[in-house]
Design brief:
It is rod-shaped, with a radius of gyration of 42 Å. It is built from 1 helix and no strands.
Length: about 110
Amino acid sequence: MSLEEVRDYSVIAYCIAGTAAFVLIVFFTIVIGVLSTMTVNRTRRLLKTNVQPTLESVRQTSESVRGTVEFVSDYAVMPVIRTYATVAGAREFIAVLSRLGRLRKGS
């Protein structure tokens, strides 16, 4: 076998191997693309069927909590604040009157 024949067989073997590798790469690329598309579609369905109702429930719960907080603020906290403010104002008023009384006695 001459050197030229070895070269020719090597070129033919590389061509066959390159063609086979190209076909395999194209095949696996198509398979990965199809599997990725199926996964994305399955994920979208899962999000639509499971996550969306959960988000709706969370939204309703937050609205309920907001209403409860407003109710408690209007009927429990605000009266306490008003009462405390009135008591603090009355104390300050009495303190001012007592200072005025001391000033009149001192003059």
